[in-house]
């Protein structure tokens, strides 16, 4: 029996659903292509065995490209992937997050690729915070250990239905910041820009800017701490918008005053990063360091102003922007 991949679905999630639909426990099913043990889900998404796409393609009729698009093999975003851990200590990150409302809305619950990224803290659709562990047993998501015919929305350790997890609130400003970061990542990936590497490296260090995590990178913090981190950044940056006299500030003023459209703002932001990269390569003296927090906040405020102006009469505006 063939099941169709869902939008943004992780390869391991699709394989889990495939195995259940065919009456084979996931662990036994993945043993067929040499992935039976340990954290097979995470390994499959990161480093699928060479012939796995052909094996799956031959049995499901799905194109190799479609199967590989479900992996997390993108070089540029790899530093933002939440690390694999055997144990789920409370103070550390876990490899996979989820939105209980998304799982509850799904006809057959499935896990999204975006839930693997440390830069994601909330659900763009439901506005609530993501979770990175089961609220009942506090363990991380471990459906790779599932030896029975049980769907992924059930905790493999304690059988809690993850769809019943309580909603976690996230401040609107933090969600706008997250959305801006995500937009920029997508824009940079779409144009295969080398600026994405610098951008991602900066994102990993934002807990330091927020004064959280004792020097740990974003990928090492649990979702609850990353939500706190984004909320602090959004608050702090708000009061620091127009401070110093440098290129970044001029750009900030311009963008905050300009109610250009959403895509225009992203394009300008990307141009700014590109310009800075160019000047770093050519200049003998390095330009002043760009304040990532201030730039993002300016971007978020411009988006916010724009959404307030347009609220109520623009059905095409992303829902989280109007929050
Ligand atoms: Zn959701
Ligand atoms: Zn549990």
**Using only CA atoms, what is the Rg?**
21 Å
Let me know the number of strands: 0
Mean pLDDT: 78
Please estimate the helix content.
40-55%
Distance between the termini: 42 Å
- Number of helices, counting only DSSP H or I runs of 4 residues or more: 13
Structural class by secondary-structure content? mainly alpha
Tally of individual domains = 2
- Order of SSEs: HHHHHHHHHHHHH
Unique ligands: zinc ion
Note down, in words, how this protein is organized.
Helices cover 45% and strands 0% of the residues. It has 13 helices and no strands. Helix 1 crosses helix 3 (40-46) and helix 10 (223-238) crosses helix 13. The protein is globular and about 50 Å long. Bound molecules: zinc ion (2 copies). The site of one zinc ion has 6 residues, from helix 6. One zinc ion is lined by residues 99, 101-102, 123, 125-126.
Write the layout of secondary structure elements.
Blueprint lengths: L10 H11 L4 H6 L8 H7 L5 H9 L3 H5 L31 H6 L66 H19 L4 H10 L1 H5 L12 H16 L8 H11 L4 H21 L9 H19 L13
The structure holds zinc ion (2 copies).
Task: Sum up the structure in keywords.
binds zinc ion, 13 helices, 323 residues, single chain, 2 domains, mainly alpha, globular
What's a concise summary of this model?
This protein is mainly alpha-helical and 323 residues long. It contains 13 helices and no strands. Helix 7 (172-190) packs across helix 10 (223-238), helix 7 crosses helix 12 (262-282) and helix 12 runs antiparallel to helix 13.
């Amino acid at each position: 029996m063939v099941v169709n991949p869902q939008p943004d679905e992780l390869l391991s999630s699709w394989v889990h659903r495939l195995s259940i639909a065919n009456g084979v426990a996931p662990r036994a099913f993945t043993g067929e292509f040499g992935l039976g043990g340990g954290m097979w889900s995470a390994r499959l998404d990161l480093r699928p065995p060479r012939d796995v796409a052909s094996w799956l393609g031959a049995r499901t009729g799905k194109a190799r490209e479609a199967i590989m698009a479900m992996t997390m093999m993108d070089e540029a975003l790899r530093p933002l992937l939440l690390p694999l851990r055997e144990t789920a200590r409370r103070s550390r990150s876990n490899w996979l997050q989820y939105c209980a409302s998304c799982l509850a809305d799904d006809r057959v619950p499935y896990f999204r690729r975006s839930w693997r990224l440390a830069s994601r803290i909330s659900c763009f659709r439901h506005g609530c915070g993501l979770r990175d562990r089961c609220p009942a047993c506090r363990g991380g998501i471990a459906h790779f250990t599932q030896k029975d015919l049980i769907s992924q929305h059930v905790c493999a350790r304690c059988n809690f239905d993850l769809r019943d997890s309580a909603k976690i609130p996230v401040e609107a400003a933090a969600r706008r910041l997250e959305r801006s970061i995500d937009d920029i990542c997508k824009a940079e990936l779409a144009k295969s820009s080398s600026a994405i590497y610098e951008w991602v490296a900066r994102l990993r260090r934002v807990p330091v800017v927020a004064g959280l995590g004792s020097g740990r990178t974003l990928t090492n913090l649990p979702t609850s701490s990353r939500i706190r981190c984004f909320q602090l950044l959004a608050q702090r940056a708000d009061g620091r918008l127009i401070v110093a006299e440098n290129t970044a500030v001029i750009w900030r003023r311009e963008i905050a005053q300009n109610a250009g459209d959403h895509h225009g703002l992203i394009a300008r932001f990307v141009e700014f990063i590109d310009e800075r990269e160019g000047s770093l390569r050519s200049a003998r003296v390095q330009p002043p360091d760009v304040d990532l927090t201030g730039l993002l906040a300016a971007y978020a405020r411009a988006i916010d102003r724009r959404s307030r102006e347009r609220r109520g009469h623009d059905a095409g505006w992303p829902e989280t922007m109007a929050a």
